[in-house]
Amino acid sequence: MNQKSVGGGLASGSIWSIVDNLAQQAISFVIFAVLARFLAPDAFGLLTVAHLFILFTRLVVFDAIAMPVIRAGLPDDRFYSWVFTCCALAGLLLAALMFFSAGLVSSLYRAPELKAVLQGMSLSVLFFGLMRAYEARLVRNMMFRQLAVRSIGSVMTGGVVGIALAAGGWGAMSLVVQQVAASGLALALVVAQSRWLPRIVFDRALNRKYWHDIRQVGLTGILNFANTNGDSLLVSVFLGPYATGLYNLAKRVTSAVYLVIASSMQKVALPVFSDAGSDLAAMGRGYLKILGITLFCVAPLLCFQAVLAEPLVAAVFGAKWLPAAPVVSALALLYLLSSIVHLNDYLFFAVGKNRLPVRLGIAQLILATALAVSCYRFGLLGMSLSFCGAYLLVFPLSQILLNRELGLNARQVWYALAPPLVGSTFLVLGLAAYAWLVPPGISNVTLVAGGVLIACLLYPFMVVVTGWQIRSVNASWHGLLLSAMRLGRAR
């Protein structure tokens, strides 16, 4: 395969990866919003508890076993069959564990209805185990279009089934059938697309050769699971399914903005940091560009959610979800900080400081757990604020260490952050005044629509005005914005 075809494959793969990510986020959110109209928070809380177990198995077990396929030089069908055998056996054992421990877990949660949910979702664990080798084979062969078609088709089909059952009064089991149908269809599609049937292969030599990699990826998966899903786990343990359902909604609303924009910014950041090489000054300039653009996109959306959380939740999901509105406001702050911290972690890896993000992540996890244990008595909002507090404590340390690595000073960072921060501050004040002045009786949809209009006019105006007033060492902020946009188009 020549260099040109490899480059074309990588470009096509990147496009399909972005399409896959954006489409899944959009479709999943629409399906979730429709289901929320039919189901109570308890139903989503029960599913979240079961989904946490599935996420743990995927990150810690299945991904760890499949990782050698991505790293191997020239994997053959026997090697893929070995991965399939290991994942299938692990999936079978974990599905059985989930099924037979469902009664014990439901008694610990004091939620008898959780038993049927866990037992039903155990099928998804098995399906994911059977699927993982096929996914690894498609990724290794850069067949991202097939993966995108598989993901979009299965999510849409499962969503239609779930909505139909929820409308028919199936309650939490409609969500179970939705998830099982989506994972089962995903398995069928990936098998059909691969046109490959594995054999059962046991190989002690391969077990010994890749055990170290499997263990390392598994340990990393545990840390990633704890950092991304530890908050939901703590809420479920201390506050039960109802509060978990409310927290899950708030998290999905706020994290959707972060996930879409952050993933896009990382794809832009990769060529910027690669071009900089070992030139720390160039890398610092690239970092400030990406940081400014990330906040420019993330900050207004999260500020809008924070200020108008109550009418937004009522308009989109229904009045029964209003207790989640204060949590949406709290998590908006968390994901605003998270967008900066994760970009900083990306830079630490780029400059060779691989252990720093891990240590900072462990510190943030310990702080979040300690604060949550102390604050759970104050309810869901108290726990949500405790998670924000952990990020507030870790963020300054992350920024100071990164500035030191790149040779940046506080003034340079301020030049990058000032326009979106000033614009967001005025946006928050403007939206708060608007919500206070709006006469009683106006519909939530109208209130949200008016807020959108204010945000579209006020935020860009304040960003441009602030950018005109601030000059950095090399260029104005709006100059950095324009150059970064030109870079994105060129790429």
UniProtKB/TrEMBL annotation:
Task: Report the superkingdom from the record.
Answer: Bacteria
Where found, per UniProt? Answer: Cell membrane
Q: Where are the transmembrane segments?
A: 21-40, 46-67, 79-104, 116-135, 147-170, 176-197, 217-243, 255-274, 286-309, 321-344, 356-374, 380-402, 414-436, 442-465
What's the protein's topology in the membrane? Multi-pass membrane protein
The record's section on InterPro entries has: Poly_Biosynth_Transport
Has keyword Signal? no
Give UniProt keywords alphabetically: Cell membrane, Membrane, Transmembrane, Transmembrane helix
Q: Which Pfam families does the UniProt entry name for this protein? A: Polysacc_synt_3
Q: Provide the family line.
A: Belongs to the polysaccharide synthase family.
Q: What is this protein called?
A: Lipopolysaccharide biosynthesis protein
Species source reads Collimonas rhizosphaerae
